[in-house]
Amino acid sequence: MKVIYIAGPYRDNRGEFHVRCNIREAERAALFVWMNKAVALCPHKNTAGLGGAYGIPDSTWLNGDLELILRCDVVYAIPGWDTSEGALAEVEFAKSRGIPVLYDQAQVLDFLENKWTEDSF
To answer: Counting Cβ atoms within 10 Å, is residue 113 exposed (0-12), middle (13-18) or buried (19+)?
Structure first.
C-alpha cells in the first residue's frame, strides 16, 4: 500500500476552535486517502492536543513530522497549506528529498492509479 502524508495547517492564533477545525480538515483528507485504499499518515490526529505537553519543545514535534515524511511515498498538501509555516516547511522538505507533493484529490487519485510521471507534480 502507498503511504500519503497529510500536510496542512494545525496551529491557529485565533484560538482552539480553529485548531480543531484544522484537525477536522486534515481528518477529512486522511479519510479520503483511506477510502481509496492507501495509508494516510495524518500528524494532526497523531499529536492532537499534545502541543506543549510535558515541556516538549515545539521543534520536537516539527522534526518528528519531517522524519515521518521520509517514510512516505508522497505528501498531500491540503487547502490552506500555503498559509501554514509548518506545512510550508513540510512541502519544501519533501521536495528537497525528491518526495512528490500532491495538491488536490484528483492528483491523489492519479497517483494511486499510477497515472502520473515525475513531471506531473
So the answer is: exposed
